[in-house]
Structures are given as C-alpha cells and as structure tokens.
C-alpha cells in the first residue's frame, strides 16, 4: 500500500496515452489509495512519540505535504517547460506536451525513493517511552490547581455514535470545496490575468513554503488552546480572502496583490490539515486516531466527482 503512490505516478507514463479511464485508474485511484491509506497512520505513529504535543507534531509531519510542492514544482517545471513557453489559445506548444510523460517517471522515481526512506525510518514509540513522557507531563501539570485528566480512547463504533464525529465529517466535507477550487484553478486564474507561467510557477513554489510553515504554526496554536477557536479563526480568515480574491489581480499592482493573496490563502488552508486530526485525537483519544481520522477524511471523496 505504501508504494501505490509512486506506482500510480510512474504507471501514468504509460496510461496517459490510453485515454481518460486508464489515466484515472493510475493517477487518481492508485495514487489516491497510496496517499490516503498511510495518511492517518503516519500521524498516529509520529504523535505517539510526543503525547503532550500531538498537534504540533502533526503540524510538523503535515508540513511535509506543503513542502513537497517547494521541491517538486521547480523539478516539474524544469522537465516540462524549461523555456517558459506560454499557452496559445489555452494550449501549450507540442514540445511542452511531449515532455509530460517523462515527468511522471522522474517524479515517481523520486517519490519512491522518499517512500522507501520514510518506511525504513518510521516506527511506533514503545509503550514505556510514552508512559515516561505522560508521567513528566503529569508532573508539570501537578503545579496547576486543576488536576490532569486522563484521556479516554473511544472505540471506532463509539466514535461513530458521537455527534462530534459527524461535525468533523461535515467540516471536512465543506472545507474540501475551496481547497479543491484553489489548488486546481489558481494558476489558470493567473494565466487568464496575463501573468507569466514562470512567475506563476515561482508563486506555486513559494506557496509551498507558506503551506509548510503554516501547518507548524497552526499545530502549535492548537496545542496551546482548543481546536474550536483556531478553526473558527481559520474559516473566517479563509472566507474573507476568498471573497476578495477575484478582484486582486486587476490593475498595475495586480501581480503583487495576487501573490500576497495566494500566499495568505495557502497559509490559512494549511491549518485544516492540522486542526482536524488534532480535534479527532482530543475528541476520541489517541488509540484509534488513525482509523477514526481516516473515516472522517472519507468526506473528501466528493473531490472525485
């Protein structure tokens, strides 16, 4: 399962020439399975080493998803469009299109190497280490007037019966709409506004840095307060940015305002990938977090429509 991700990318080198159905089978279904199944497991394994700072750890791990574009976007641009050729009537020149299949092989090979490295390094924290860290956390909390409360872990069936499960499911279901809209159209919007492809690629690369740093910042914020307040702040800020987004690219300052808005939106949306898993852990406990979060994240299936 861990290698379905890279396999889906590399096999697309062949299926891209056999129609939309074959392309969907490798780059959407196979790639999606390889990314989705290990997703919550990695969070649970990583956070097991730091039980007192789970949200921050999830933010650091999730920042890798944001950092990926910072690494892969320049490589992708260098392979496919090294001369910064612009589309003509919505279509790129044939020499640009011909380089796309090779990009799948190169990027898939890089992903495979990272997957093997990560799989060799990843392991669950021994129970003794967890207990020691929890003991130190309790000793720190003993200085407070309020005694520490032991967190109970719910079973999967108990979690499904909780209203919090469906609230989080609804949050993910709604949040995925602007995420999909932004990631699939922000470059198209930039091209329609007259911005150069190279400039947009540079913006996409820089966005990855904001996405990466944002996940760590949001994770640290959640560790120091509840999940609800950061989530409300995120949604309010996100809404304001999206409402004003269609108007920022016009005028002489358009290229600069466009970049600022994209950076701010990506910094904001990064919190979604940290707050929701942290809320799952706080609501249902850490024991079955991977499975429960996987069920909550199944709300993203609407992206496939």
TrEMBL record:
GO terms for cellular component: membrane. GO terms for molecular function: transmembrane transporter activity. It is a multi-pass membrane protein. It comes from the Eukaryota. InterPro entries: MFS (IPR011701), MFS_Riboflavin_Transporter (IPR052983), MFS_trans_sf (IPR036259). It holds the Pfam family MFS_1. Keywords: Membrane, Transmembrane, Transmembrane helix, Transport. It is found in: Membrane. The chain crosses the membrane at residues 20-43, 55-80, 100-121, 165-187, 199-218, 230-250, 256-280. This is Major facilitator superfamily (MFS) profile domain-containing protein. It comes from Dibothriocephalus latus.
């Amino acid at each position: 399962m861990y290698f379905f991700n890279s396999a889906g990318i590399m096999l697309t080198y062949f299926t891209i020439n056999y129609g939309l159905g074959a392309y969907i089978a490798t780059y959407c279904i196979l790639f999606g399975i390889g990314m989705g199944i290990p997703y919550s497991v990695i969070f649970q394994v990583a956070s097991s080493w730091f039980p007192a700072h789970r949200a921050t750890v999830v933010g650091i791990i999730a920042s890798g998803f944001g950092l990926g574009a910072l690494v892969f976007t320049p490589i992708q641009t260098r392979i496919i469009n090294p001369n910064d050729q612009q589309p003509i009537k919505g279509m790129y020149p044939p020499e640009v299109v011909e380089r796309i299949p090779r990009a799948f092989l190169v990027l898939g090979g890089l992903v495979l190497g990272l997957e093997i490295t990560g799989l060799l390094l990843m392991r669950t924290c021994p129970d003794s280490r967890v207990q020691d860290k929890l003991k130190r956390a309790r000793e720190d909390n003993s200085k407070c007037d309020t005694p520490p409360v032991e967190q109970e872990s719910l079973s999967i069936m108990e979690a499904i019966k909780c209203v919090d499960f469906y609230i989080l499911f609804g949050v993910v279901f709604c949040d995925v709409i602007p995420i999909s809209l932004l990631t699939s159209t922000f470059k198209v919007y930039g091209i329609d506004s007259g911005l150069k492809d190279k400039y947009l690629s540079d913006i996409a690369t820089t966005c990855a840095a904001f996405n990466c740093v944002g996940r760590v910042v949001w994770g640290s914020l959640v560790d120091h307060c509840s999940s609800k307040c950061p989530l409300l702040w995120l949604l309010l800020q996100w809404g304001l940015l999206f409402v004003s987004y269609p108007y920022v690219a016009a005028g002489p300052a358009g290229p600069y305002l466009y970049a600022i808005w994209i950076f701010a939106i990506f910094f904001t949306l990064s919190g979604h990938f940290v707050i929701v898993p942290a809320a799952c852990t706080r609501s249902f406990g850490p024991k079955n977090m991977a499975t429960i979060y996987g069920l909550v994240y199944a709300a993203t299936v609407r992206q496939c429509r």
